[in-house]
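Your task
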Amino acid sequence: YAVSRVTPGTNLLALYALLGHRLGGWRLALAAVAVGALLPASLAVLIAYAYSHSTSPMVTAIMAGARAGGVAVFLGAAVRLLKPQLVAHPRTGVAFAVLAFLVVWMLPVSLFVVLLVSGAAGSLWLRSAP
């Protein structure tokens, strides 16, 4: 288990390999990784493909909900990043928030791009005084 914690993001994969090797050598380790990682990932890809190519009203509603969840995550990140700036620089922080809102509302720009550009601009103009 300690070996599996060395590489973040691959903990389960490393744990499958470690347990497989302990229980049955390298053959079982490879089988455990193949079944434990490739099978669920393949299943997830197939389900995503089926959802994206479906015309069912229920699937359409589910995908709309997923998009709304993604937008909520980006807006939550923007609020968490902007909140300290509104305290330190109230007028400039509000100007940034209004400008970002107007850009997203008026132009076909991804929220991710707006978040990146706002972060870069904010690091230039909203720095704390040394």
Remarks:
- The CA atoms of residues 36 and 104 lie 41 Å apart.
- The chain has four helices and no strands.
- The chain has a mean pLDDT of 79.
